Amino acid sequence: FIHDIRQLVKILPKKRQTLFFSATIDSEIKKLAYSLVKDAIRIQISPKDPVSKNVDHSVGFIAMDDKRFFLERLIKEHPESRILVFVRTKVRAERVSAALARVDIKSLTMHGDKEQKERILALRQFRDGAVLVLIATDVSARGIDIDGVEYVVNYDLPEQAENYVHRVGRTGRGKKRGTAIAFCSPEEKPLLDAIEEYTGNKISVLEITR
Length: 210
Prior knowledge:
- It is a single chain.
- With 210 residues, this protein is α/β, with parallel strands linked by helices.
- The protein is built from 7 helices and 7 strands, in the order ααβαβαβαββαβαβ.
- The longest helix has 13 residues, at 116-128.
- The model has no long low-confidence stretch (mean pLDDT 88).
């Protein structure tokens, strides 16, 4: 939304107070935020354990090309559950959705190429339970706030460790428990190490059976 923000700034008063709130912030967004304000003051609240206590975490070590089979298995084993799947790119989102369609699993996608009306429709269908699987990228998933997401699947591990916290926070909301499952390929092991270091917790390993 950077272009929208820059258009908005042009018509705002030069003298104003600007407040920016974010659950997580990386170096790129921090640089952007500071470019839009004057005499910025940053207030950061960092809990000792940034991850919700209501979420059960696990990781399965799966080859990159095999991930779609285990996602299919998870969905078919929990046909009534609302499942949010995170991937790294918009191309991956469409590919995973197409792979699920080939095994008769309906899913929705959310990414940067979707128009706002398409995103709103997808969220409505996911929220109402018309479609129980939503595949999203990090950027497009920032505004997802839907009760009843039982599973968050990190199909691709995030490149920024703090995004793991943001992702898994989509489940286990309020007093409800949730489950976060990560698919980690051999080449993603350094990303898993970074996540465990960031959260201060080891993620339990799933015993994978075929």
